[in-house]
Structure formats: C-alpha cells, structure tokens
Amino acid sequence: MKYTLFDPRACLLGEGAFWHPERQQAFWFDILGRRMLSRKDGRELEWRFDERVSAAGWIDHDTLIIASETALFRFNLKNGSREDLVPLEADRPDTRSNDGRADPQGGFWIGTMAVDASPGQGAIYRYYKGELRKLFAPISISNAICFSPDGTLAYFADTEEQTVWVQDLDGDGWPKGDKRVFLDLRGTEEYPDGAVTDAKGNFWNARWGTGRLVCHAPDGRLLDQVEVPSKQTTCPAFIGEHLDRILLTSAAVDLGGAQDGRSWLVMPNGPRGRPEPQVLA
After folding, report:
1. Prediction pTM value
2. Exactly one of 7, 99, 158, 193 is catalytic; which is it?
3. How far apart are CA 137 and CA 123, in angstroms?
4. Cα distance between residue 92 and residue 104, in whole Å
5. 81 vs 115: CA distance, rounded Å
6. What is the per-residue pLDDT across 67-123, written as a single tens digit (0 to 9) for each?
C-alpha cells in the first residue's frame, strides 16, 4: 500500500475519521484541541467547541450527530448551531467520549474513558431512535468500534487490554449473546486503536504507537499493513467517490516529530469501503 499526506494540520489527538456520503466530504476530530476538521475543494475547514469532541455520524446533508464529553448532540454544518439529544456521562467530569461510529441499522455507538486514562472508568453505549443504552463496562480505553457489512457483527476494543472483541447483533442492532475475542494482542507491542471494515468485511485497525494500519480478514488472519511517518496512528475511514482510499488520523500528544499528528491518505490497491450509514436521530 502507498500513502501520501492528506492534511498537514497537526492534531494533538486525531480521532473519529468518517466520510459523509451525501456531502462527499471527510471529517475528523482533534479531541484535545476541541475541534472538528474537514477539507472541501482543497480548502481547510475547522469548527471549534467549548468541550472535547471525538466522533460523529451523519443525520442528513447538513446535520451531524457529534459525541462530546457531556452529550450527544445534533450539529448544523451551515450555521454551527447545536441541539443536545441525550447526556453522555455529563455528571462525570473525570470522563470524556472517545471512539464512535454509526451501525448499519442507524444506531450510533460511542465509547467513553477517563480523561487521565485511569483503568476501568469508561463504557460503550449505543444511541438508537432516541434511546441511549450502556452496552459494555468497564472499559479503560474504548476503541475500534465498527461493524460487519451486513450489520450482524460489531467490533470494539479496549486499547489498554490489547484486545478486540466481536459481538453478534440482532435485527435492530442490539447485542445478543456474549462477546468473543477477535484479536488477542496481549504480550505484544500492539495496541488496537480505531478501526473500520471494508465492503468484504475485512477489519482495518490503526495500531497506536507503531505508525501502522493493519488489515485482518474476518477470521483474524493478517492480510496487509502499511506504516506512515506518524507514530501514533489512531483512526481509519474509507473516503472518496469510490471509497477506495483511507483517511488515517494520528496524534502528536507527548511527541515532537514534524509528522506527528498529521492525517494521511492510504491507497489500499483494491479494497473498497462502504458508505457510512445514516443515523436515525
């Protein structure tokens, strides 16, 4: 796989990369910088917030659902207005939102974690048709939330535990049965961060601290990998008219390299993604 620079702006903690299929536009976040970034027609775009924001999905052409440290809210891209939908651990100033993604049934999954990354303080939630339900806890560092193309499986990770799980879903997208280990990376230098699946169900995972994006088959076999100049890779998303490229974010926190925190464009040479599902909100 080849790669090139997608956006030169350094993020302290890049996350939440996703492609809005109606707008044909990529969005991503700098969690610690409290901003959402984008590009359109070669222009750099940025929205700033008064709290940490980390992940989003699309509700309609001009409206996103955004996860912050206190709420899930509707955000109007035309005028910048905000309408809160539900609180998200608003009574816990020690936690914030982290990784999140829309599921094929129209729900939105979002993970939380301690601001100081203290173990076991986070959880994973699902928002669906006005209801926010806690699904998994305790979680230390929620990550790798993504779904099989047919919507029957959800993936998620606890980066601190170096483990990725897979979970069966019912027809409405709620978990059924027990989660199973998909990738056990304990005892290695591999820490699973954000992830996305492609049209064939392969699992593309950023590996924190390695600079790599790694692709696994649905049975866990290693298929491919690429290394970019940013050591702390964080979140991939298939983007572009044909969904045949991958936006890969990174983090510059605690690092001083010129390339750290930048966002990269990976060309996977064959694999294609799927349009991000519309969130029912």
Report:
1. 0.97
2. 193
3. 5
4. 30
5. 26
6. 999 999 999 999 999 999 999 999 999 999 999 999 999 999 999 999 999 999 999
